[in-house]
Design brief:
This protein is α/β, with parallel strands linked by helices and 346 residues long. The chain contains 12 helices and 13 strands. The longest helix is centred in the C-terminal third of the chain and has 18 residues, at 311-328.
Length: 346
Amino acid sequence: MKQPLKILSVIDIPWNSGLAAYAFDQARALRAGGHSVAFACPEGSAAMDFAAREGFRHYPIPGRKAYHRLPLALLRLRSIALDEEIDIVAAHTGRAQTLAYLLGLPIIRVKADAKKPSAGFTFSAVARTIAASACIESLYTAAGMDRAGISVIRQGITPPAALPRTPRPPYRVGLLGRLDLVKGHFCFLEAAARLLRAGAKAEFHVAGYEANIKYADLRSTAAELGIGNNVFFHGKVDGPFGFMSSCDIGVIASLGSEAVSRAALEWLAAGKPLVAASVGSLPEYVAPPWLAPPGDAPALAEKIGALLADPTLAGEVGKANLARARRDFSPAAFAAATCAVFEGAV
């Protein structure tokens, strides 16, 4: 390892998200590699809570609705950066990149969201860009940026201890994700209805917290489709793997977004066959035979039905997914690639 670095991770969003989760995993990886990481984030944010819980130093910056306080915060951060001899800044949003530019330090731009990037004047200070998926890399190249300055580093994951489950009818088909229109819950229910009408011996399970749609909406739709007795709603679950281990087949029915997909990685690590929509980064995790066009319920039903009809095939796909999670998405590989980028940029 090269000389240990002092890194300031700047993330100005208050909520937990795929972007935030990537920032947290990155900080853990850098610390495991012998580097020091401090967070600059809003008071009360998920990042502040994470930093306090995991023992990272943390400094408050204004949230997105308090940018009138930015000049004072900038002066304070400059003082902190000098006192702590910060070497480089990890900027996780466009606003964070601007703040890092004003600090006058080298920047690693870390991008784990689907927002279209732009080569503004602050990009001149970016030493390297980390894209959390090839999908995000393509957003940069489409914006005219040089692929040579981008490193694709997908998150790592540790597979859970095996929870024995012998698949048997009715097979359990699961979807885990926040209740949002973009996640394709209604398409999932329509696909379920098609399969059940065709005689499939299956149950359909939904878990996740309510966002822009409610469980009452999904129950109403299931009743209208005549499948109310075959669909089960679990609400928000404590961690993904308990729910995933209880299922025989995983589904991600998203209609868009998915620039990163933690759920796809978790389904692979759980050793389950996964059927997904061909959007965002999902084709990076799911083989072509198990991809369906977004919003195409008949195609989604066909892919799920092929696994329901052949439990042996479903088992083989699940084992292959687990092997790939261990081979291609290990935390050690994520940490090594992450440290290499930061060390090479200073």
